[in-house]
Amino acid sequence: MCLAEAVAVAALLAADPAFDAIVTSATSTSHEQALARMQEWVDAHPGDPESARALVWMARLRRSDGRDEAARALLERALREGPGTEWALHAEKALGDLDLEAHRYAPAIARYDHLAGLPAPLWRYVGSSAAGHARGERTRFRILIAILAALAALSLARVIRAGGPRSLWPPPAELLWLLPVLLVLLAAAAAQEAPEARAVVSLSLGGAALLWLNGAWLRARPPRRMALPALLGLGQALALLYCAMVWNGLWDKLVDTIAMGAQ
Amino acid sequence: MRAAPWLAFCVAYLAAWFVSTAIPVPLLWHLPVERRFTFVVHPLGLGADFYGRLLLCLGAGAVAFVLARAALPKLRPGLIPLLLVWTCGLLLFTGGLYVYTLASRQPIPAPLPAGYVPR
Fold it and tell me: What pLDDT, on the 0 to 100 scale, is given for residue A245?
C-alpha cells in the first residue's frame, strides 16, 4: 500500500517527465535502483521546490521496505528543504506516523496538533483525527504497560511464595495438557500476515508462560476453592489477549471487525 | 500401554489436519469435473481436498504410531492420560476451526459445463 501511495503522491503533481519516469520505474525495477535514480534527480535540481516531493516519495518507498530510520532521515530533510510547501506537511504527517508506530506518543501528537491548527480544512481534519487516534493509542499503551507490570508482579510474588524457581520444575500438568494446542497455534501463525502472526505467537508463548506459572503455584499451594483461581486465570487470559492485540497494532482492526463483521 | 501407539496416531493425525488447514500446503486434490487428481496448494476449478488431506494425516499418524510403538518399552504409564487429553484437546480445537470456517462460508455454485442440456 505504501508503494501505491508513493506512486499516487508523485503522480498527483508530476510535471517533470524525468520525475515521472523514475516514479513509474519503481513498479518494474528494484526499489534501490528507483531510489538511486530519484536521488540523482534531487542532486541535479538543488533548490527545486519539487525536491521535497521527491524526498517524501523516497521516504514512502523506504517505509514500504521496512526501513523506517532511512525514511525518517528523508522526511526530516524534506521538512528542511520545503518549508511552507504541501510536501512539508506530508512529511510532518509521515514523521508523526513513524513516531506513533515507535510508541513515541508525545512527539506524534505534537506533530498532529500542529497540522490540526493549520487553516486548510483538509490538514485540519487529517491532524485532528490523527491526534485523536494517537491519544487513544497512548491510553491503550499505558494500560498495556500497567497490565504487564501487574502480571509480572503477581507471577514474581507467586514464584517467591511457592519456594523459588525450583517450584517451576517439572512443568505442571496444566502446561503439558495444552502443549499440542499451543504448538499447532504456533505453526498456524506461519500462514498469517506479520501483525496477526506476531499476535498469535505472543498469545501462544504468553499463554504457555501463564499456564506454567499458575500450574506451579497451584501445585505448591493447592487452594481450598477453585473459583477464585479460575476467575483470576480467566482475567489473566483476557489481559494477555488485550496486550497481544494492542502491542501488535490490531486494536483498530478488532474494533472494525466487531462493528462491521469479519468480511 | 498398548493404547499408547494408537493415541499417538490420533494426536499426530489431528495435529496434521489442523496445521494443513491453517497453513496453505500442497495437497492431492480431486477434480470431479475433470475426473483427475492434481497436487497443488489450491486448484483453480472445482476441487475436493478431502482425499489428499486424509492421506497426509494418515501418513502423519502412521509415523507417530511407528515411533510410539518403537518407544513402547520406555514409555511411562502416566503417558496414557496425557495422550488422551492431547487427543481430546486437538479434536475440540480442530473441530472448532472447521465450525468457524464453515459457519461463515457462502457457497458459490460452479458454472454448468459447456453444452449441458437440462432434462
Answer: 94
